Sequence to fold (114 residues):
Amino acid sequence: DASPESWPLLSLWQGTADAIVHPDNLRELTEQWTAVQEIDLVADELEVIGSAIREVYRDNAGMPRIETWSLDGFGHAVPIDADGNPEVCGLEAEFVVNANLCAIRRVADFWQLR
Fold:
């Protein structure tokens, strides 16, 4: 039986207008991963960034273990901040769409990679 600390940090992203992966999957995944890691299902932190809602779930030691992102009106794609500099976050393409929010940068921050 794995301890909650042995699970990887999770960053879950979902667009509310996704026609491929149903938006309810974000809630289902959140319920599953908080349960397996023995974390309360009530988010410890809520942040609104434009049309996105970010929630953070912390373990009993107060460490962030799971973050969820719900992007209002966003479809099935990776959100980027297409500010014209591809080195910053990338360029728009099929399934890579400008949301004025760089998912790659945000995940790297949550995983403490930068």
